[in-house]
UniProtKB/TrEMBL annotation:
<feature type="modified residue" description="O-(phosphoribosyl dephospho-coenzyme A)serine">
    <location>
        <position position="14"/>
    </location>
</feature>
<dbReference type="GO" id="GO:0016829">
    <property type="term" value="F:lyase activity"/>
</dbReference>
<keyword id="KW-0963">Cytoplasm</keyword>
<dbReference type="InterPro" id="IPR023439">
    <property type="entry name" value="Mal_deCO2ase/Cit_lyase_ACP"/>
</dbReference>
<dbReference type="Pfam" id="PF06857">
    <property type="entry name" value="ACP"/>
</dbReference>
<dbReference type="GO" id="GO:0005737">
    <property type="term" value="C:cytoplasm"/>
</dbReference>
<protein>
    <submittedName>
        <fullName>Citrate lyase acyl carrier protein</fullName>
    </submittedName>
</protein>
<keyword id="KW-0597">Phosphoprotein</keyword>
<dbReference type="InterPro" id="IPR006495">
    <property type="entry name" value="CitD"/>
</dbReference>
<keyword id="KW-0456">Lyase</keyword>
Length: 95
């Protein structure tokens, strides 16, 4: 699966995250992360972003994330919203 266009989700408010996504050709999953809590939670934020992208079946994407102390569930929700706005259709869930 690939992205159709650039998109973003989130805000720069406290306890939120802005995630911007763009199509990438052959570059794999590239994450550029800025965070107020990078020393403590930087790797966890990267893991959430990357696992969410992989779950959606996307192999080539550029992601820029600016974190202001968002919780894990917020990071995942913003990532999914940015992907949807970029034209990526998620995997269907079995109900």
């Amino acid at each position: 699966m690939s992205l159709i266009k650039q998109a973003q989700a989130g805000t720069l408010e406290s306890n939120d995250i802005v995630i911007m996504v763009a199509p990438s050709v052959g570059g794999g999953i590239v994450v550029e992360l800025q965070s107020l809590v990078m020393p403590q939670y930087g790797q966890q934020i990267r893991n959430i972003i990357e696992s969410t992208v992989k779950e959606q079946g996307i192999d080539d994407i550029y992601i820029k994330a600016v974190d202001r102390g968002a919780l894990d569930c917020t990071i995942r929700a913003r990532m999914l919203a940015a992907l949807a706005r970029a034209g990526a259709t998620g995997k269907e869930e079995n109900v």
